[in-house]
Amino acid sequence: MRVKMKKQKGITLITLTITIIIMLIIASITLNIGTGLIKEAKLQDLVTNMLLIQAKTKEGVEEVNFKKANVTNQEEIEKIKSENLIGKVVSGSNIEVEGNGKLEDLVTQVFGTTDNCYYLAQEDLEHIGIKDIDFSEYGYFVIKYDIENIAVDIMNTRGYKGEYKLDKLVEMQGE
């Protein structure tokens, strides 16, 4: 006498294991891609803020260069600079930068000097239209004014992957 076995419906343990492994692989790939996209977005946000700061501060340099054209008195030139350049002088600031020591030391490391270097405080950023910057996330923005060449160079104390200057961060965007 033959006993007919009912055909069982469902999945086997092997099928379930393979399915779970495939799902874990897909989840890890998705997580890795998502993390990369978040880092790229943060870099783009930093670069965008730095470009805006660069544009706004360059206006001040152009104004100083124009106003000092016929001025020979150094005190008058310093007054023109204080009225038109945005930020606070880095030299003597005694600001500690998280993970990088003193602001003066980092600026010297990046720019080679603190001459004509100014850091932007919250009110300076708001003055140029950048609101709600969290210094614990972004760090400080530092401007190196070059009045003679009508140029500004900008750095961020937080940086990104060991780079602090705007030109280097812009290069990294394409990578």
- Given the C-alpha coordinates, what overall shape results? rod-shaped
Please summarize the sheet with the most strands: 5 strands, antiparallel
The order of strands across the largest sheet is: 1-4-5-6-7
Order of helices and strands: HHEEEHEHHEEEH
Q: Compute the average pLDDT.
A: 87
Based on secondary structure, the structural category is alpha+beta
Helix content: 40-55%
Distance between the termini: 73 Å
Number of strands: 7
Count of runs of 4 or more consecutive helical residues = 6
Uncertain spans, ≥5 residues at pLDDT below 50? Answer: none
Name the beta content range: 15-25%
Using only C-alpha atoms, the radius of gyration works out to: 27 Å
Could you explain the architecture of this structure?
The protein is of the alpha+beta class and 175 residues long. It contains 6 helices and 7 strands. The model has no long low-confidence stretch (mean pLDDT 87).
